[in-house]
Amino acid sequence: MILAVIFGILKGSVDLNFSELFSKENRQILNLRLVRVILAIIAGSGLSVCGIVLQAILRNPLAEPYLLGTSSGAGLGAVIALTVGIAVTYIPFAAFIGAILSTLLVYYISRHRGKIGVQSLILSGIIVSIAFSAIILFLLSTSERETLHGISWWLWGNLEVFDFKLLLIVGAVVALGIFTVYMFSQDLNAISIGEEEAIHLGINVELMKKILLFLVSLITAAIISVCGVIGFVGLIIPHMARLIIGPNHRLLIPVSCILSSAFMILCDSFARTLFSPSEIPIGVITAIVGAPIFIILLKKSEA
Amino acid sequence: MDILLKADKICGGYTNKPVINNVSLEIKQGDFLGIIGPNGGGKSTLLRLMSRALTPTEGRIVLSGKDLRKISPKEVAQKIAFIPQLTLINFSFTVWEIVLMGRIPHLSRMQPEGKKDFSIAERALSLTDTLHLRNRKIDELSAGERQRVIIAKALAQEPLLLFLDEPTSHLDIAHQVQTLDLLTDLNQKNNLSIVIVLHDLNLASEYCKKIILLDNGKIFKEGTPDYVLTYQNIESLYRTVVVVKDNPVTSKPHILLIPGNKKLEHGENSVTPQNR
Q1: What percent of chain A shows pLDDT beyond 70?
Q2: Which residues in chain B have Cβ-Cβ distances shorter than 8 Å to A194?
Q3: Which chain B residues are within 8 Å of A113, Cβ to Cβ?
Q4: What confidence tens digit (pLDDT) does each residue in A242-270 have?
Q5: Which architecture characterizes domain B3-228 according to CATH?
Q6: For residue A50, is pLDDT > 90?
Q7: Beta-ladder partners of B14
Q8: How far from each other are the two terminal CA atoms of chain A, in whole angstroms?
Q9: What is the pTM of this model?
Q10: DSSP letters along A271-290, please?
Q11: End-to-end distance of chain B based on CA atoms, in angstroms?
């Protein structure tokens, strides 16, 4: 990870060597890159921890943070904001609200007599995602071309920071969220064996699910509102971490944070430099890199 | 003998269909109680009511002198360990990690296991003869080994009572006997009280000191295997013709199935009393 941080700072659209980078006149570029690295760490850690939580609660290794409809909700929020013509700086807020609302909707649909069923949670997440994606497409197809590019750019995610305060808020939310999730490590271990087992180990499973699902939606919404939708990180990194150190959440959570931070920093470096000076959305890179890794992991686990 | 758990006229089940209807029972220290009965009779539901996984709609359950509703789930888990029907584990935890999870009820959040917990977990492994599997992954074990590890996890809870819901239903006969022998050992040598739901009447007969025959959410018969497992009781409940003989070795009642007599009409019994 340390290597990745150094790599992420050194690489950029403008080629600079080490001494040039730390010289006074390039201070701004250094700051810019540092901030991107920080955001990469925040987004990577947050998304992978959310993936871990959902995979444990749903006992489904294919679960990922966007399963709760967060991404399409955020997308819809942003698209509505753009079509209505709200200033670009407020788009994160619109996305955040959209993400939270869609998660609440998913949660409400899957709730049955005060309990959240695993199957119904997955199904309602898919349904809400499909419905919202359809509305997004509808809005995009009826709106003018200019906003379209902005949106697709945003939908695929990027780590450009245009508001430092926002970065601080998101960082705080994600850090607190991860810390709280970590307090539930042993409960997550128990629930990944089975809900019934967790109940009989004296864990209040329904309350725990509510708290953790709330945290997951909060973290995902916060990340998505500044970075857009960055796929595959929340899915693959937990898998890789499990292969390395096993499923014990006390280790899995910190190791995933480190791995995903490194992964995100590297992907962001590629996003910035591959077709420099133009930048590719980081979601494109994570998907292109992530999909093959995922297929390999899947084939390996089947064997 | 101490009464560990007492159910007083409890009713309950799932929201729209009450399954258990006015059941009272007592579990004493050292009991090996079997719960048997036809499908849908409420065996598992009764077990889940007694372990606080479900709340009774009526009646009262007292666990070592305290009302079950007033005890926290954690405290219940310190006294009752529960082994559900089939534990399918998707994640490759090691045996050691699984057994340490049995210490959850005794530790506060974020409290790491200490020396005491490690020695309890080790003891649980050696009691179930799984110490050598300690570093193996749970999803690489055979069904019988896995079941023993699950029992070890339950023992690490240091429970007064061990509840099991059909622990043998997915095991071959060798592993069935192995599992139930282990439970008998724990019952006799460690004075662990056991309540077990079983489908297999013969296993219940061989291993349980006392049997409750549950039908339609009510206790139909209750007592020793000899008293409960008569052909009259079984035929009237299961609507299947059976012959009950004594096991020549253990002299416990053994139930033999008679094919082709799906329904028993009064007076038209093809199995004559002499045959029984």
Answers
A1: 84
A2: 84, 87-89
A3: 15
A4: 888 889 999 999 999 999 998 998 888 88
A5: 3-Layer(aba) Sandwich (3.40)
A6: yes
A7: B17
A8: 30
A9: 0.86
A10: HHHTTTTS---HHHHHHHHH
A11: 37
Domain map (residue ranges) of chain A: 2-302
- The residues that bridge with B60 in the sheet, in sequence order, are B8
Chain A residues with CB-CB distance to B87 below 8 A: 193-194, 197
**Measured between beta carbons, which residues in chain B are less than 8 angstroms from residue A202?**
72-78, 104-105
The more confidently predicted of residues B273 and B144 is: B144
Contact A202 B75 (CB under 8 A): yes
Confidence (pLDDT) at B17: 73
pLDDT exceeds cutoff 70 at B14: yes
Q: Does the beta carbon of B88 lie under 8 angstroms from any beta carbon of chain A?
A: yes
Q: Which CATH number fits domain A2-302: 1.10.10.60, 1.10.3470.10, 3.30.1360.40, 2.30.33.40?
A: 1.10.3470.10
Span A156-179, pLDDT tens digits: 776 776 677 888 899 999 999 999
Of A183, A197, A204, the CB nearest to B73: A204
Question: Is A190 in Cβ contact with B101 (below 8 Å)?
Answer: yes
Work out the pLDDT band at B75, boundaries 50, 70, 90: very high
Measured distance CA(A287)–CA(B46) in Å, rounded: 50
CA atoms of B195 and A238, how far apart (whole Å): 39
Contacts of B14 (CB under 8 A, 6+ apart): B45, B54
The mean-pLDDT minimum among A21-35, A56-70, A247-261, B229-243 falls in A21-35
Neighbouring-strand partners of residue B67 = B62
Nearest by CB to B92, which of A184, A185, A247? A247
Q: Closest partner residue to B82 among A187, A192, A200, by Cβ?
A: A200
Q: Where exactly are the structural domains of chain B?
A: 3-228, 230-276
Q: How far is CA B114 from CA A86, A237, B201, in A?
A: 57, 31, 42
- Among residues B203, B242, B241, the alpha carbon closest in space to that of B225 is found at B203
Most B CBs within 10 Å, among A195, A197, A208, A244, to test the B interface? A197
Compare all CA atoms of chain A with the CA of B96 and give the residue at the minimum distance: A248
One-letter amino acid identity for B49?
L
Query: What is the model's pLDDT at position A146?
Result: 63
Give pLDDT tens digits for B219-273.
Answer: 999 999 999 999 989 988 888 888 899 999 998 999 998 887 655 454 444 455 5
> What are the backbone dihedrals phi and psi of residue B6, each rounded to the nearest 5 degrees, phi first?
-135, 125
How far from the centroid of its chain's Cα atoms is residue A82's Cα?
Answer: 22
- Kindly list the residues from chain A whose CB atom is less than 8 angstroms away from the CB atom of residue B159: none
